[in-house]
Fold this sequence. Notes:
Blueprint: E1 15-23, E2 47-56, H1 57-60, E3 61-65, E4 73-75, H2 79-83, H3 94-102, E5 108-110, E6 116-118, H4 122-129, E7 148-150
Antiparallel strand pairs: 1-2, 1-7, 3-4, 5-6
Amino acid sequence: SKNIQFPYGQYSGHFCLGIIYSRHADRELDETHTYGLEELHSIASVIKDFQFFVAEKWSIASDKSGSGNTANIGSINKISDILSGQGMFSRLGEKWFDDYWMNYGKITIADDSGSTKKITNLKDFVIYRGGDTRLIVPKTRKTRTNHRSLS
């Protein structure tokens, strides 16, 4: 209920507003230089190349939590996939996203050794629900070809 005013189902959509930006190379900035008030206009920003986006959360979500100790919904992290809405649920749809995250870590299944485990990945969940695992968009690993960041 943190930062949420109404029950989940009463909202017409759940959106992410994101900012993608580049960082200036460290060698371009002199962090030790002191500026006077008359020089404010000459202070270089540490970030540049802003790109804003809005996406429905389900279209850019992954199947992993965003933090280690809660069930915060995590997002994919490859910039081109985010901008094109190619999250893991993008072919499954919003209903699969809602069902998965409302049941995240709550459903227990037997593993190959006969022990039980909680479902915390989309493939196991889709199999459990009898869905088509071919509709899962694989999470692409982020490559470090530049210094663009997500906010």
